[in-house]
Every structure is written in C-alpha cells, then in structure tokens.
Design goal:
By secondary structure, the protein is mainly alpha-helical. The protein is 42% helix and 10% strand. The protein has a 3-stranded antiparallel sheet.
Length: 127
C-alpha cells in the first residue's frame, strides 16, 4: 500500500521530563501500530469523563495556555476529586504541571492538541 498523502506521521518519542509527546498519525493515513493505538486510547479514555473534559478545556482555553489549579477547580466536584482527574489527564499525556509555591499550574502542550486534531482529520476524497 503506497502512501500518497502529504500528511506526515508524528513520531512517537520519549518526552523530556515533564513534557508531553505527540500521539499518532491521522486515522486515514495507515493502520495504527499497537503502541499508537494504546496511546490514543489512553488519551480519549481520559477525555471520556465529563469532569476531565471540562478540566482539560479549562486549561486549554485559559489565557496564556496554562492555568493554576485554583482557577479551574470549580467543576462541581470536591478538591480531592479534581486532583484525581488532573492526575489522570497527566498520566494520559494530555497535561503537564509545575508547582509554584503552594499552587500547581497545568498546561496543555500545543503539540498534543495539534496531534489530536490531525488524528481525527479525514483526508480529502480523490478527485
């Protein structure tokens, strides 16, 4: 099977400490490897919870691309539950965090959002 697409697969690389690695090539480019499908499934499973999706959205849309936990905790659940959900988002590779004093700041890496968008991109139909 030849690949005539101009789309390039995103490499699976080991992230630097605290960094997030891109995920996978577009679904229409080629079948996923086992590792790529496991990575994508972890990301989408983490976003499959409404509270996690709200937290992810709150961080991604926050001014400057990062948010203090103090600014995003009002999602209708207790603080320990917010911490649990943020931990799950980090484990899935969707967020990074940095402690500054008593607060933790979360960031969505632009590469992750771009990779997730490309993953769901459908190639145009041949003319």
């Amino acid at each position: 099977m030849s690949n005539t697409s101009n789309t390039k697969a995103l490499p699976l690389v080991e992230p630097a400490a605290g960094a997030v690695a891109p995920c996978c090539p577009p679904l229409t480019e080629r079948p996923f490897t086992t590792e790529e499908s496991e990575t994508a499934a972890r990301m989408f499973k983490a976003l499959g919870d409404p509270v996690r999706l709200r937290l992810f959205s709150a961080v991604a849309s926050h001014e400057g691309g990062e948010a203090c936990v103090c600014d995003i905790s009002d999602v209708g659940v207790s603080q320990p539950t917010v911490s649990h959900h943020l931990k799950k988002l980090k484990e899935a590779g969707l967020l990074t965090s940095e402690r500054r004093g008593t607060w933790v700041y979360y960031r969505v890496e632009p590469a992750v959002l771009a990779a997730m968008g490309r993953l769901l991109t459908v190639a145009p139909a041949p003319a």
